[in-house]
Design a protein that fits this description.
The protein is α+β, with helices and mostly antiparallel strands. The protein is built from five helices and four strands; from the N terminus they run H-H-E-H-E-H-E-E-H. A four-stranded antiparallel sheet has the order 1-2-4-3.
Amino acid sequence: MAPTNVKAKAAKKAALQGVHSHSARKQRYSVTFHRPKTLRLPRSPKYPRKSIPHAPRMDQFRTIVSPLNTESAMKKIEEHNTLVFIVDIKSNKRQIKDAVKKLYDVQAAKINTLIRPDGKKKAYVRLTPDHDALDVANKIGFI
């Protein structure tokens, strides 16, 4: 009989005083409050925001605008095995290299670019020794 009596008295005391009377406050060691990091679930959208992925914005036809056939460009073709092109202002060297390979079937050794004072980008495409710039220029049709 005694244990149940003790249990009943403990329940009576808890009911009268409450069980949350001696909860300690959490000690804070900093004066600034940092919001706790809570669960962040990955997005699971109900429908795709784009119906189809965008076509490549910078393809080879947009990258290379035109070949340049000035006197200095002709000298580059003959002496340095280098083709000169006007290219899109937003294209980079990798895109120019890929475009030359796709359009003219030649391998570029290196690309130098500059932006002209009129705002157009010029690219000097140095070809590998196994390709001749004069033959490629003839194939393109500006010699």
